């Protein structure tokens, strides 16, 4: 109405008055008011006032509107500058500043002697600066197609990655590029402000054979990782298997930051400040890289010569539980999993029927064969079922119970427990387990109790993923799984490591280590210590005794003497030529429906008088333990004590 009034009175458009513009100066508003009063002066005369009713009605709303405009403008100014000042400043700074995370160098991994096993080497990455992508959709899709062609993926894959980017930061599209590849990409995308070639680092694993299962590998963080560890970013690399996974949080380090000033289009103007990334901690293993290399080579040679396809070997410090060597064959090259360009080779490994990704040293479950006999002897002596001087006539070479016969592999004659261990006398151990002639036998209850006591049927707790517990069969287990009763023959078979008993190489190694160290069942560990970049300690690996006093030292000494006699005159004589005195036990374990097929096993500890190392070797389907597995064990002992290596024939 006011606008129309002025238009009628002054001959101007409603918008010319400026009354609807809250930013018109107050002086202009006052001038308009004075002009109006000059044309229509106010009067105190009642008649004059009443003679101008239209002027009065239009003047009062004018002042009211002026007051409201000024009040609204003032209130908004206060809200912006005072009440919300800090918040608006924060938003403005957020639009002006961009923070980029600087990845921390991942920690290194060394063997016990300081030999580098895992390191970081320079590499290059192809990245997209999302804030600098072309604003036009057509131009953006043109760039996407160009990227997809270079990366050999579909445009949909690139678009999906861009859609999943939750902020305006940097998205990595290709990692671990060589310098030549980086140069080629730089030339290809020259002039594209949103395409960046950045220098980073890639994980490189030593070419020492047999390290694949132990060290593991890293990969892009998963949804599960992000859920369980909120501090991780969607583009972080984390451990996926092996020690890389077990000690990932120690190896990760703390990322740094770069704060940059950007313009309204997101382009970087200058670097404001940085916080330096803190490198990850160094992990020092108890592993001896030289022994590991010899063990891997010897095992592979033995597998090949025997016509087998797979096997495992473990060596452990009998006093600390540190793993000195651990080999599983077939193995794999960790570097395949840190290099995105080698996808085809990774696929070949994943589809291999020999399952190279399985660490047979901790996940392979095998019948123990006669390598279990030192543990059974310890149980019999400790329970008083026999004494060190008990003699048994085993010259019949067979035990007959009803229509069932339980033969020995050869005739032995009179034997005590030492001789029974040395010559792997089955009849003696049948009697020790289930009873025969004057020997009452342990019986299945005590037999299984001692197997559990020595760590069978449970995980060892080693700091690696993927461990299996093996199996100690019991009457309850057989009734549940087989729906069959337990027979005396089951007890006999259990006492010589046949039947349903399943052990892992690492379980057997620590059981033999317990016999060597006086009855302490140790938790095996890969770790020796973890150090910060300045050399200070973060963690020291501690010797953990899971169970102590498994048997009296007098009992264990008799068993050790039996194992020593096996080297001097029994089934393990191959090791008698060593300059170091060794105690050992051979094993040949039947498997499958065809009983002629056997695994080759061998276990030992050394030196005999003051044990340091215990070991186990298995060659799947390799045949006789003293023929196939024993040479591998000999090479491992030679390597550990720095003796000349005997060529496996």
Fold and architecture overview:
This protein has 649 residues and is of the alpha+beta class. Among the domains are: 2-83, no CATH class; 289-340 and 360-640, Beta-lactamase. Helices cover 39% and strands 20% of the residues. It has 26 helices and 23 strands. Strand 21 (583-590) and strand 22 (598-606) form a beta hairpin. Its main location: membrane.
What's the layout of helices and strands?
Blueprint: H1 2-10, H2 26-39, H3 46-50, H4 53-83, H5 85-96, E1 97-102, E2 109-110, E3 116-129, H6 137-151, H7 155-164, E4 170-177, H8 179-188, E5 195-205, H9 212-215, E6 218-220, H10 223-228, E7 237-239, H11 242-246, H12 248-251, E8 256-262, E9 268-275, E10 282-285, H13 289-306, E11 311-317, E12 323-329, H14 335-338, H15 343-351, H16 360-363, H17 373-382, E13 392-393, E14 398-401, E15 404-407, E16 414-415, H18 417-423, H19 426-434, H20 443-453, H21 475-481, H22 488-495, H23 505-517, E17 521-522, E18 527-531, E19 537-540, E20 545-547, H24 553-568, E21 583-590, E22 598-606, E23 613-619, H25 625-628, H26 630-640
Parallel strand pairs: 2-10
Antiparallel strand pairs: 1-8, 2-3, 3-4, 3-5, 6-7, 8-9, 10-18, 11-12, 11-23, 13-16, 14-15, 17-20, 18-19, 21-22, 22-23
**Average of pLDDT:** 86
Query: What is the number of E strands?
Result: 23
Count of individual helical segments = 26
Q: Provide the β-strand percentage band.
A: 15-25%
Shape, per Cα inertia axes: elongated
Classify the secondary structure makeup into a structural class. alpha+beta
Amino-to-carboxy terminus distance: 113 Å
Tell me the Rg in angstroms: 41 Å
Q: Poorly predicted ranges (pLDDT <50, ≥5 residues)? A: 1-24
CATH architecture of the domain at 289-340 and 360-640: 3-Layer(aba) Sandwich
* Major beta-sheet overview: 7 strands, mixed
